[in-house]
Amino acid sequence: MSDTYPIAPHGGALVNLLASDDAAANLAAEAANLPKLVVNERELSDLEMLATGALSPLTGFQGEDDYHSVLETMHLADGLAWAIPVVLSVGDDELHRVGGAEAIALCRSIARTISSTPASRRCTTAATPASRAPSR
What we know:
Layout: H1 21-31, E1 36-38, H2 41-52, H3 64-73, H4 92-98, E2 103-109, E3 112-118
Parallel strand pairs: 1-2
Antiparallel strand pairs: 2-3
């Protein structure tokens, strides 16, 4: 317990990914040149919860190691208890289109960018039973 938080954040750190007005303008300019990925309503909700710290200590969508670890052990790959996969649903065509990009722009529609994320957090579901794979 601390003076700032009556209950310690899960994982020890409360994450705040919201950008200031100046940083948001710079990020929007950078996102204009990134490959675009349209997110669905669930992913948009996950993105909002990531940005505001509701999913602390996550700092972005889970990558493949965390995804499989959560499904198999209900813990992140680093051992922290976590029961919910938080991933982007990316189809094969979309994955091929964004290819080796270092980052991608997440959009509500192709014309409205809302965020960007490192593309290194990729996850494949080929070895995952269909009943447990992220919806597309």
